[in-house]
Q: What sequence folds into this?
């Protein structure tokens, strides 16, 4: 092709979902209708074809015209709206990520663009033919089958086998193939159910629904646990639907929200569309397309749902806005709550931040007038807030039986007994998975440590293994110490939920008990079934981790006992006190949510701690005001800015040398300082040695510019990785 003909072609800047800087230049051949900004296009890239988005047009390119390749085709999909593109650019700039990496999150389903045809699924045949040789893997497949057809990949994932096991059963006649019908996304009905709200709820609901269609605003829905915040913001969703707009609800643990989904179904007649990591690729593809096409009117999802390509978004709700799981810690590192506020501003729509324990940043924004606040101070109906008592473990230590280590005080055990006698339920909370956090040899002192991480191996009696909770490394529990060879000398140190379950079983052998922990109850369906069992009083005592703190309503649960209330205060984390207060307040809120009085007991070795006293007296504001004053004095967020820099390498020497080089080139000036380098708290993680530096600036300093300028001055070897985190929430 001649230069003259090439120059007549329209030049397009196409952004690809890759962690590369900037868009790439392509030409639009005369055979194609020129695409517009936001259109999805297929383009050649290297030796493959990829889907990208037309980000801009250009008059000329810096590339030689002979090197500019043609767009292959324009995808038959609605374009990515301007607001979606602005969000991607904004998040990329704020987090110092490439726009392509952020686009990848918005284009998270590759086969949505490749025209996947009919999908084949499998169901159980009437009988397993005698010729089919059954194996343990094949039996697992048969055990997970449902009445609805599923793809081989979906079945394999549920059964934890390879897809070939599924197809082998199908070839043998044990499974029947059926065509899978595409998902149907029904429109929620705003008049599906009569809604009964208290006077306080009605006033709050009117305030939220009145904001829809009035432009950008941020409202904090601050209601005590059990106050009915969900029913209140449902009114806002209804208002958005009535105006022909879409609504997005972010939830911290989408797989643990069976009760929330049932409430939604009762209110709107149908289930919302869902978005989370447990969805199959097929469902993700269908949901993504339906969001883009406007067929999904309400979607509830985890943090990644924020980047879905909504075209008619009218309202955003962030439920449990304080929850730390809204922070994405790898890849593009972002805080979904904060980015949700940004998206609302770009879309010019209202957003609600809902919580019984709003984050400190949110509270400061309310105090400064940046956000408005709607308060629900009372529980719904006849329910009242539970009483909270402290158990001083120095004065009321556990009574250890012969040969048995106890972790529950006589006071708490007595309360459990009285609760069971009344026919009510109890919850024991310990935010530690497994049986014991450490195993050591009493003879030689050897401690079992992960070879890939600077962390102890956690004992899991269920499965008899020692496991690293950071990288997944695990080994069977040995019969003897691998160092000194002594048998019978391995000691389990400290409790996890499995060990508390063992103690409860010994103390109350005839009661029904249940352990709820993320590692034991992996899937959303399994978790939903456990929540149903608790709700229907099919168990008497629940022993669980933090997954039980989030919004669950159990009408017969009247006692909450926190096994180790001090656990979250160790480690020197900036937000350790705030997070501990939030978690304990939330788990306390599971008690007495119906017409029965609730009681909460916190086992602590530091009852005079201001957090424990604030929980006991209900004076949350006193604790939080001190926390705010301390942050302001130290110029810590939200009164200053932080950026974390983690240097890592497979070579400890290379990581340390690179960190020291960065430290020597650290920026300085008015309102700017660098702390470190120091070994990270997890100095070895997944086989990489880690050093941490912390950039601290004043609130008005553009910390991204300072950070970019700093890193640009330093040349580091390719063996060293530098990861940056604007507004870090964890400091491991």
A:
């Amino acid at each position: 092709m001649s230069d003259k003909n090439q120059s007549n072609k329209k030049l397009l800047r196409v952004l690809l979902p890759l962690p590369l800087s900037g868009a790439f230049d392509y030409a639009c051949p005369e055979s194609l209708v020129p695409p517009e900004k936001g259109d999805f296009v297929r383009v050649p890239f290297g030796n493959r074809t990829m889907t990208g988005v037309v980000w801009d047009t250009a008059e000329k390119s810096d590339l030689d015209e002979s090197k500019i390749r043609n767009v292959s085709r324009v995808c038959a999909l609605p374009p990515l709206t301007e607001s979606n593109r602005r969000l991607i650019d904004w998040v990329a700039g704020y987090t110092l990520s490439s726009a392509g990496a952020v686009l990848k999150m918005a284009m998270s389903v590759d086969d949505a663009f490749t025209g996947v045809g009919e999908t084949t699924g499998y169901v159980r045949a009437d009988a397993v033919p005698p010729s089919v040789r059954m194996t343990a893997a094949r039996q697992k497949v048969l055990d997970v089958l449902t009445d609805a057809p599923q793809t081989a990949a979906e079945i394999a994932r549920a059964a934890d086998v390879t897809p070939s096991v599924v197809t082998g059963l199908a070839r043998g006649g044990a499974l029947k193939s059926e065509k899978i019908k595409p998902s149907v996304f029904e429109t929620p009905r705003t008049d599906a159910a009569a809604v009964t709200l208290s006077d306080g709820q009605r006033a709050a609901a009117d305030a939220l629904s009145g904001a829809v269609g009035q432009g950008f605003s941020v409202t904090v829905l601050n209601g005590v646990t059990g106050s009915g915040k969900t029913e209140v913001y449902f009114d806002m969703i209804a208002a958005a639907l009535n105006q022909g707009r879409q609504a997005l609800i972010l939830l911290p643990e989408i797989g643990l929200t069976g009760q929330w989904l049932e409430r939604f179904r009762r209110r709107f007649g149908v289930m919302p569309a869902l978005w989370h990591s447990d969805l199959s690729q097929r469902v993700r593809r269908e949901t993504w397309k339906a969001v883009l096409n406007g067929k999904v009117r309400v979607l509830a999802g985890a943090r990644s749902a924020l980047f879905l390509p909504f075209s008619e978004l009218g309202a955003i709700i962030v439920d449990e806005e304080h929850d730390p799981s809204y922070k994405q810690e790898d890849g593009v590192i972002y805080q979904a709550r904060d980015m949700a506020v940004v998206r609302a501003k770009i879309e010019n729509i209202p957003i609600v931040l809902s919580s019984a324990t709003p984050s400190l940043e949110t509270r400061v924004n309310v105090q400064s007038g940046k956000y408005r606040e709607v308060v629900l101070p009372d529980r719904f109906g006849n329910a009242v807030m539970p009483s909270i008592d402290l158990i001083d473990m120095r004065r009321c230590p556990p009574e250890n039986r012969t040969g048995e280590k106890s972790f529950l005080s006589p006071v708490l055990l007595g309360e459990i007994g009285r609760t069971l006698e009344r026919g009510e339920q109890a919850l024991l909370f310990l935010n530690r998975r497994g049986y014991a956090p450490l195993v050591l040899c009493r003879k030689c002192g050897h401690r079992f440590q992960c070879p890939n991480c600077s962390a102890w191996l956690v004992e899991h009696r269920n499965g008899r293994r020692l496991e690293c909770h950071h990288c997944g490394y695990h080994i069977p529990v040995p019969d003897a110490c691998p160092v000194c060879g002594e048998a019978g000398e391995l000691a389990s140190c400290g409790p996890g939920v499995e060990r508390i379950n063992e103690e409860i079983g010994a103390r109350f052998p005839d009661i029904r008990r249940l352990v709820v922990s993320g590692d034991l109850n992996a899937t959303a369906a399994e978790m939903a079934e456990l929540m149903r069992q608790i709700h229907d009083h099919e168990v008497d005592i629940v022993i669980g981790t933090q997954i039980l703190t989030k919004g669950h309503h159990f009408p017969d649960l009247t006692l909450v006992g926190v096994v180790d209330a001090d656990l979250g205060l160790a480690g020197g984390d900036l937000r350790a006190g705030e997070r501990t207060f939030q978690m304990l307040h939330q788990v306390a809120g599971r008690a007495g949510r119906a017409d029965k009085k609730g009681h909460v007991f916190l086992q602590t070795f530091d009852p005079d701690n201001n957090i424990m006293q604030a929980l006991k007296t209900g004076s949350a504001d006193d604790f939080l005001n001190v926390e705010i004053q301390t942050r302001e004095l130290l110029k810590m967020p939200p009164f200053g800015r932080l950026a974390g820099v983690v240097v890592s390498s497979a070579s400890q020497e290379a990581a340390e040398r690179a960190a020291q080089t960065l430290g020597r080139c650290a920026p300085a000036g008015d309102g700017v300082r660098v702390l470190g380098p120091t070994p990270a708290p997890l100095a070895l993680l997944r086989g990489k040695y880690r050093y941490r530096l912390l950039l601290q600036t004043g609130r008005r300093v553009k910390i991204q510019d300072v950070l970019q300028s700093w890193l640009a001055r330093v040349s580091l070897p390719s063996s060293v990785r530098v990861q940056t985190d604007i507004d870090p929430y964890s400091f491991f």
Remarks:
- The chain has 20 helices and 31 strands.
- Confidence is low (pLDDT under 50) at residues 1-6.
